[in-house]
Amino acid sequence: MSTNIEIKWIAILPILSQITFMDKSLVGKNAIVTGAALGIGKETSLLLARKGANVIVSDIKEEEGNRLVNEIQNFGGTASFVYCDVSREEDIIQLTNYLPNQNKRIDIMVNNAGIANKPTFMHKVSTEVWNQLILLDLTSVFWCQKYATKLMLADKKGGSIINVASIAGLGASPSLGPYCVAKAGVIELSTTGALEVAKAGIRINAVCPGWTETAILDVAGERGKSAMEKNIPMGRLGKPNEVANLIVFLASDESSFITGSVYKIDGGTRS
Ligand SMILES: NC(=O)c1ccc[n+]([C@@H]2O[C@H](COP(=O)([O-])OP(=O)(O)OC[C@H]3O[C@@H](n4cnc5c(N)ncnc54)[C@H](O)[C@@H]3O)[C@@H](O)[C@H]2O)c1
Q1: Is the pLDDT of residue 14 over 60?
Q2: Would you state the pLDDT for residue 15?
Q3: Could you tell me the distance, in angstroms and rounded to a whole number, from the CA of residue 102 to the centre of ligand 1?
Q4: Which domains does the chain have, with CATH numbers?
């Protein structure tokens, strides 16, 4: 009889220790993640929720977004899906007002949604493709940062904004011209914006992933992906959860003295 009880205790000990030591440092914080249905945004949403944040999962992919909300709720986390096409300013205004409309504030805003252009040399890029990339990868981040900052300034409690740029914004990447230009703009938007609101306790940082194993790389095809891998000193693509770890660090109070910074996370890639 007593051996049975001992065996049961041994079986639940690992679970108990996980519960005891689980990092719940983001309990009480509200976070918005754009482009949250897949890839880096999905992993970021999961990690924010595991650490206790209430996560607003936002994307144009409703099915995948709602599936992620269910996944978060299944492990006891809190999340809601809000549709937002980041290429529409009115959608972003609605998204940023979602929490204040429920008498909650935005503590964390992760501006992650983005697309890559089909590889094309600059002199062959059509005006349509150029405009689409700049709108979706740069103007959208400007809107998200602008409206989140205004709300954070109004309630005077600070906040953390993380803009997902790319190492493509730090150096030349032939055939990815519009993407490079948009991401370089995101870096400037972050560093300049950060200095303007630093005294108000609002931190703005940019994360620059190198090639990371997500659907966005599909434009490069399998041959393109293996060429990318060969150029990464660590010899492999990044994983979306590795980028999420950095984003969530910048979202948390552990990074309380970091603002206006630009972080590469790329397995040592030289850009
Ligand atoms: N994967 C990489 O190699 C890599 C490298 C550097 C930077 N990034 C950046 O990371 C961010 C996330 O990309 P990912 O790699 O996870 O790609 P992904 O394709 O897996 O995810 C992108 C997400 O953005 C969403 N999205 C696309 N258009 C949208 C729109 N108009 N409105 C709202 N959401 C929209 C998609 O539905 C998807 O959920 C992007 O900004 C991307 O530029 C990725």
Answers
A1: no
A2: 59
A3: 28
A4: 29-265 (3.40.50.720)
